Amino acid sequence: MAVKLHAGTLSCSTTLVPLLLSAVLAMPVSAAGFDVHLMDSAGDGLANAAVVVRTLDAEPDRPDSPRVRIDQIDRAFVPAAITIPVGTEVMFPNKDDIRHHVYSFSEAKTFELPLYTGMPARPVHFPQAGIVTIACNIHDWMLGHIYVVDTPWHGLSDEGGRWESPSLPAGRYRVEVWHHGLSDGRMTLHEGELAAGERLKLDSTLEIQSGPSPRRAPRPGRRGYR
Ligand SMILES: [Cu+2]
């Protein structure tokens, strides 16, 4: 936060300036940002949609590129969706006692981890922004979505369709939603100025073409694959 003191407006003794300054710095600062609420066309909260906030003023600092993991547990990807910054490495540990064959044919990242158990030898690097759909060659119902974003401010909507941005500096922003079920994969929720201390509520209803969550594994015994 920038604290500006204009010397010309201070008519008091200069000995008071340090006191005034500490008083200004101690004032609570309300956190500017966005409170997003997403619903599907049935009016239910839309979970696992990626909310992506970009600054329109200047290049932000490059986001950190942590190493994260997506497990395979009970023949499902856990978690089934994540947002990660460009450059992140993802490990895909197989926690099941059967083999999986994880792959993606998505434009933002094509890769394949042929049949394996346990921990793959190396992580998968995601150097390009976009939506990456992951699947298993053996278990058709296993689907996951990795939203690779090129901004430090991003996250997934919760079960109720809500996401709160971290505290942002005043400025101009574009807020986008990315979801594999949107016709173009993404849409703009909002574009404009955010004032210092302003919390902007963004409510939106989205037309999702496919189910918002990956299909679940069928009950044991229903399928031949193990
Ligand atoms: Cu599998």
Q: How would you sum up this structure, described in words?
A:
There is one protein chain. With 226 residues, the protein is mainly β. It has 2 domains: 34-60 and 152-213, Immunoglobulin-like (Sandwich), CATH 2.60.40; 62-150, Cupredoxins -  blue copper proteins (Immunoglobulin-like), CATH 2.60.40.420. 4% of the residues lie in helices and 42% in strands. The chain has one helix at 17-26, and strands spanning 33-40, 50-55, 67-69, 71-73, 76-78, 81-85, 88-91, 100-106, 109-116, 124-126, 130-136, 143-149, 153-156, 162-164, 171-178, 186-194, 199-206. The strands form 5 sheets. A 5-stranded mixed beta sheet has the order 6-12-11-8-9, with no helix packed on it. It has a 4-stranded antiparallel beta sheet with strand order 13-2-15-16, with no helix packed on it. A hairpin with a 2-residue loop joins strand 8 and strand 9 (109-116). The protein is globular and about 50 Å long. Mean pLDDT is 84; it is low at 1-28 and 211-226. Copper (II) ion binds at residues 75, 100, 136, 138-139, 142.
Write the layout of secondary structure elements.
Blueprint: H1 17-26, E1 33-40, E2 50-55, E3 67-69, E4 71-73, E5 76-78, E6 81-85, E7 88-91, E8 100-106, E9 109-116, E10 124-126, E11 130-136, E12 143-149, E13 153-156, E14 162-164, E15 171-178, E16 186-194, E17 199-206
Parallel strand pairs: 1-17, 3-7, 6-12
Antiparallel strand pairs: 1-14, 2-13, 2-15, 4-5, 7-10, 8-9, 8-11, 11-12, 15-16
Protein name: Methylamine utilization protein
Keywords: Signal
